[in-house]
Specification:
Helix 1 runs antiparallel to helix 2 and helix 2 runs antiparallel to helix 3. Helices cover 77% and strands 0% of the residues. The chain has one domain. The chain is mostly helical.
Length: 83
């Protein structure tokens, strides 16, 4: 379990899992809606999940947030360029 530095108490593992899953949701949303906003939000939620003990899902949220937001921005530029 990760330790809360402000109180020296342990974070519950479910807290990190919840944040990581929200990060994954934000990553998927970045593919369809406001890529920079949801991409950054997903990465930050993933980092928060990693710090709270959910390492695998947290890193997955970070990787998907960055890759899907960059892909979505690239795709939008390609579609605008064709107009």
């Amino acid at each position: 379990m990760a330790v809360d530095r402000s109180t020296s108490a342990r974070f519950p593992r479910s807290s990190g899992r919840r944040r990581s899953l929200l990060g994954l949701g934000a990553a998927v949303m970045s593919l369809f809606l406001a890529p920079p906003l949801f991409g950054v939000a997903g990465a930050l939620l993933g980092v928060s999940g990693v710090r709270r003990g959910e390492v695998r899902l947290g890193w997955l949220a970070i990787a998907l947030s960055v890759s899907l937001s960059l892909f979505s921005a690239w795709l939008a530029l390609q579609l605008v360029h064709r107009l």
